[in-house]
Amino acid sequence: MTVTWYDLVPVFGVVVTIVGISFKAGQILQKLNHVIGEVGELKTEMREIKTDVRRIDDLDKRVSILENTTKSKKQ
What we know:
- By secondary structure, the chain is mostly helical.
- It has one domain.
- The protein has one helix at about 5-75.
- The longest helix has about 70 residues, at about 5-75.
- The relative contact order is 0.05.
- The model has no long low-confidence stretch (mean pLDDT about 90).
């Protein structure tokens, strides 16, 4: 039995389809990797913001204590 290139056209079609799907999957994975990196950066920024909020709360408490102390001394 002789195999001609016409007989291999479906095989080439399958190979091209697999390559196309692999290429598209690679693009999606690159985008996903970028998104994961962005999420990591956002988590870090959120931690920094939480730390800043805690510091502000502590300063706010100190100011309140000083105000109360000052008010009681004036009376």
